[in-house]
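Figure 6 in text form: structure in, sequence out.
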């Protein structure tokens, strides 16, 4: 129960703290203590390509992500997989710019490209099933808490070079995102706790736009590597 309480506290803290502070907290307070026979704790990170699947003109946006994960053994080869993606952007590019009410600005960026970046702290909650302790599949729900959000206006090959403007849109984006997530992976070693590589797909069911007539539902493919922290350490020799 103490370990599960630490996990709940860690998830809540990371959701509201900056990534750097969260990493320091984990290093100083938890270290390898969260790795027990029933729980695997580690670092997860990689690249994701995101889309807004409700905006047909949008195209994929490449992002990097990093976070922490927990695999909690339920029975035999079945686990509850959760954690927090501390840094994880979603969004899309390739959309048309829109007027912001400044005639000079609107004239300059007419015909430019809009890149929408939404930063969410995502918490996946998945059933994780292993086969021969190597291959695994997992699926479940993923919830997100909004961080910074912005629209980038880009105009290339002008007389003054490339022009860019960034607009804060947090007030136009809902605080909570949510949807379905599923994927598969491969453990590099057959031992219970080892480095793994895999891919997950997130499909949002919730419209996060607060703007009338605009429907924003995120989707993203995550390519990741999971590295357990403090696991499989050799046992200390017994005192004679």
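Output sequence:
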């Amino acid at each position: 129960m103490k370990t599960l309480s630490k996990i709940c506290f860690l998830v809540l803290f990371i959701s509201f703290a900056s990534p750097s502070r969260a990493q320091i907290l984990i290093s100083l307070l938890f270290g390898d203590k969260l790795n027990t026979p029933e729980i695997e704790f580690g670092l997860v990170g990689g690249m994701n390509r995101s889309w807004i699947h409700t905006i047909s003109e949008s195209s994929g946006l490449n992002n990097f992500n990093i976070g922490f994960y927990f695999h909690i053994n339920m029975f035999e080869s079945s686990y509850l997989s959760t954690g927090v993606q501390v840094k994880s952007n979603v969004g899309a590019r390739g959309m048309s710019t829109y007027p912001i009410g400044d005639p000079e600005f609107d004239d300059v960026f007419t015909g430019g490209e809009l890149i929408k970046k939404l930063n969410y702290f995502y918490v996946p909650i998945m059933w994780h099933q292993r086969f021969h302790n190597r291959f695994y599949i997992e699926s479940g729900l993923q919830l997100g808490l909004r961080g910074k959000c912005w629209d980038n206006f880009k105009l290339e090959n002008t007389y003054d070079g490339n022009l860019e403007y960034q607009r804060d849109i947090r007030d136009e984006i809902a605080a909570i995102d949510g949807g379905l997530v599923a994927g598969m992976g491969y453990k590099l070693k057959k031992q219970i706790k080892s480095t793994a590589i895999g891919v997950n797909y997130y499909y949002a069911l919730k419209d996060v736009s607060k703007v009338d007539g605009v429907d924003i539902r995120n989707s993203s493919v995550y390519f990741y590597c999971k590295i357990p922290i403090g696991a499989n350490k050799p046992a200390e020799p017994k005192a004679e």
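Caption detail: Confidence is low (pLDDT under 50) at residues 12-17, 234-238.
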